[in-house]
Design a protein that fits this description.
This protein is α+β, with helices and mostly antiparallel strands.
Length: 63
Amino acid sequence: MSGISWEAPFCQDASNCFRLGTDADGNGYIAVSGQEDRYLTDSLEALRTLITDIKAGKADHLL
């Protein structure tokens, strides 16, 4: 999709790469690297909260 500015891939290892993106309308995007046409989207605030919570360990129980 045009209009999304994707960041460089974030990779845990060679097979687990994700990309974060934003657009001019204030939306945030997450996609598997190489599959940017299949993304999740929400507001930048929701994306910021998700990343902050993950960094704080609130998703550790999923591992």
